[in-house]
Records
---
Amino acid sequence: MRIIVLGSGAGGGFPQWNCNCPNCRGLRAGTLRATPRTQSSLAVSDGGGSWLLVNASPDLRAQIASCPPLQPARAVRDTAIAAVLIVDAQIDHATGLMTLREHRARLQVHCTPSVHSDLTTGYPLLRVLESYCGVDWHPIDAENEKPFAIEGLPGLELRPLPIPGEAPPYSPRRHAPAPDDTIGLTFVDRASGRRCFYAPGLAAFNDRIRTEARAADCVLLDGTLWQDDELQTRGASQKTGREMGHLAQSGRGGMVEELAALPGRKILIHINNPNPILDEDSPERRRLDTLGIEVAFDGMEISL
Ligand code: MLT
Ligand code: MN
Ligand code: ZN
């Protein structure tokens, strides 16, 4: 199994277009040791030529351009993207669907019924696509943790899991989410049995999530914020991590404490631009280094 991090940033990316927090300002000025990051997306393959796009970010066009395996050029119009999977209906995970409208066949889209509901009503991207390439929806049954496969990637099994979170700001379920508004996934390589657990939005751990994370050879987990009130203290927004459905890294019961207890490779992903871990010289980043916790970057490759 091969996983390529197409975008390691959270919504807005890094630097964010209108942001002058110390990170965004420092990156633009060249005074910060840090790397730009596009918005949250992965490409996953079973080692064959086809790829599953996991989340379609607003930066998808540039992400495809910088990832040659996704553009094999075997015909006048071609792609190696066999299907798209969306883990939540947030703008940063779904907007790139519009970029795929020129697809030559109906787009194969895997998402839960709640995500499908938001993407056909409040933010009706899937309906709009009906006037372009068309969409075949493959429902994901996360509540029953029903494993599934992707056509064209026979070596890969996907195991979905409901994750505590929030529905998107435009959703009628914003602060009363359904269990399948946000999901995590374990990607299993059928040949080797090796597993990667991915949850870019995670508001809280529970025993089920801990078990899944412990069983994984590698985890890619919510790296949005270091501190719950980070956006407030940096004057960027009134929103807290909790309100947005993201567990902060620091403090008791925080993401770092949870990750430190895991046996496998641990990687933070979906990192929001004011997070101090983006500054490679920060004490927070050094703390992660000490604990063996990695910070995902665009172009990062994981082979399992
Ligand atoms: C989130 O993860 O909280 C959202 O994606 C943020 C956004 O895109 O506005
Ligand atoms: Mn997001
Ligand atoms: Zn910023």
---
Amino acid sequence: MNQIINARLRGQEGLFNIKWEHGLFSAVELQSSRVEGRHSPDDVIDAGGNLVIPPLVEPHIHLDAALTAGEPSWNLTGTLFEGIELWSKRKAIVTKEDTRSRALRTIRMLAAHGIQHVRTHVDVTEPGLGTLKAMLEVREEARELVDLQIVAFPQEGIESFSNGRSLMTEAVEMGVDVVGGIPHFENTRDQGVSSIHFLMDLAERHGRLVDVHCDETDDPHSRFLEVLAEVTRVKGMGAHVTASHTTAMGSYDNAYCFKLFRLLKQAELNFICCPTESIHLQGRYDNYPKRRGLTRVPELDHAGLNVCFAQDSIVDPWYPLGNGNILRILDAGLHICHMLGYQNLQRALDFVTDHSARTLSLGERYGIQVGRPANLVVMSAESDYEVLRSQACAQWSIRGGRVIMRRREKEIEWS
Ligand code: FE2
């Protein structure tokens, strides 16, 4: 294959012919009319008027914990904290091969849905960092399917876990792409604040990106986002910093949020919302009315801040479901966040493509433009709205000009 005909591109009128050479896009040309696919040579894909998009992105997942739900037991309270407790038991018996095979199986699930860029958090609160070593190998092994960014994630804290700081430093020296954190889980507020200063300095010193699990709780007093945003503003690192979850923002009062948003706009950091995971884990201590436990996605978006959706978990101690399909998360997210207005439906894919790519700082490595890597996905519907409404799927996934996935849907036969 070296070209696609009858491709519809997001936000543009007409049909396009997209070509590539030596793994890079070489032409994106508007067709004067629809081309009859059956007259085309075998090396041409006929998109049939359907949408062709840059690959879908998974900006926040935990591949090292994936496919472990129920081991050693199921999370019965459905809380974040029971999940952390169960994972702590499961990781005591984890092996390199165990991590490697589960991560690769999960990556295949993601790639089967048109995802080619993945950011995974890897637990580094583990003496010896065996899991991280396994995941660094997976990053290389999986290259034909996805670009994998690895976050050094201190699941049990930086300040609250023994040798937490040195484990984080070692992880960065071993070659992680991103520095993580979990300030709301540290034992005290002071530790949460100092963990943010530590991780931001570490990232700045080593030229790494930052992605912090921040205020993943319904506690309205969990206010580490303001600390992360202020340090980001002062250091001028906004494009390289992401706040994941920030679910406490769903419980902040409006007066505080009004002040907070002023700072967020100055800091210009990125946000990731994990709607299925958060609606499952949060609100667990509420009676009725029960909070949704999500961050303020439409408000962040309206304020001009970059916000995207992620899966977070696939069959792990925190969330028992998941099949790798980020469009399922988009569907749930737009419902839960009251974002089914007409305007949002027209641009729904922003939240799982362009916005996510910006969060991952993909820059010129992403997008259907001449000279960029020939990575794309052909969908089974012709617009953002129809992708969402019809629960469309990725039919072709092309990476570096090579077909890596072709999905053949079963057709309905009426009797
Ligand atoms: Fe997470």
---
Amino acid sequence: MAKASIASPNRQNLGSPVFDELGMERDPDNLYLQTIDAVLHAAEVIGLPHHIQLILAQPKNEIMVHFPVQMDDGRYQLFKGYRVQHNNARGPYKGGLRFHPDVSLDDVKSLACLMTMKCSLVRIPFGGGKGGVKCDPRALSKNELMRVVRRFVSAIAPQIGPDYDIPAPDVGSNAPMMAWFADTYANITRGQGDAMAVVTGKPIEVGGSVGREKATGQGVIDVLVELMPEMGLQPKNSTFSLIGYGNVGSWSGKLFADRGAKLITVMDHTGAIINKNGIDTKKLDEHVTKTGGVGGFAGAEKCTEKDFYSTKVDVFIPAALEQMINHEKAELMDCKIVAEAANAPTTPAGERILLAKGVEILPAILCSAGGVTVSYFEWVQNKTQTSWDIERVDDELNRHMVAAARRTQIARTKYNVNMRTAAYIGALEAVGKAYELRGIFP
Ligand code: NAD
């Protein structure tokens, strides 16, 4: 594969006239504006009609709620929750719920827009949404967390539904929380019909799908296996590093290791570790489950953040939070491929440096689309009251991921753009077609 071209290298950040038209401030560090800027750039490349660019530059609905929850010591605490519904031209809003102290409206808006793009690129019939609660779930007891989830559901219940907006897990939320979510919604709506299909990522016993827990990591590896040979690399005997060893990071690590790749260094909120001979991903998983983080793992040495970023590897997989690969980190990095397992892990400045170094960046809307794809399979199983086996889930997931990777490659060649712009083009073509066919109401 040819070295990545930088589409419109002289293009100014936040250069679209849409920003002025909508009166948006041009803060280059704002994640929402960074996301919309990249989308609008791709829209310009394919000549997407201006009115569709305007529609996509803002979410359809931004819902903010405040709700009280009684803590175990009897006090009441007020929590802030969000649900942003970006676009539903291709189907119901779909996207995860983040439970984290830093959750903010602009970040949720950005993630909701990415969901519209992700669902469109993998051609599942959903639009994009995202939500969350500003809290530290690690600091709450199990009962406190359950009450937060249930009160949040009751606050947003009128604005969601199995045919309208279907949340899922994200950072800080998990399958048991989705079970409380579905149970609360079913109770509020008197459990009619397919109420449990209001949320995906549920435990298997209450309507979850086999393969959902590993799905995002599986999708990352499906994309790497498909595209690495075109980049002169094979998974077997390649080396990689990981930021984050939560759901997405640990599954990406274990499944890539199953393909013969060697994990050299990992960093999470508890520190960074390194072992040039390879880290045993399954033993590391056991350690993280027991202790809560990679720090102190006996099968590797502790290292600095600087060592972590500058270690030479073939594939660098960010699977933690947004905007971690900024220009300083990108300067340090020595890799051939960045596979964005997290949402928006690379800032525009970081991306420019990596592209100039000839690094291939496989963008988040492609790499991390496996989770929502299997969420779609879960929703189909709930709706049709069937259950698929793991072979069917894995095969269908692989088919969607490979088709999305090929779609991205075709757009890249056709328009001579980098992989991120190409992925957005692959997504926008389908969103644009939906608007063309549906028209604008009334
Ligand atoms: P998670 O909560 O299971 O794990 C998050 C990881 O990030 C943890 O290992 C944590 O230690 C690490 N982390 C947090 N702060 C950090 C810091 N400052 N430095 C280094 N590491 C840090 O979350 P997850 O579900 O694995 O999600 C990770 C990313 O993948 C997020 O961007 C999320 O939006 C995205 N994503 C998740 C899914 C999914 O199905 N869970 C799907 C698509 C995308």
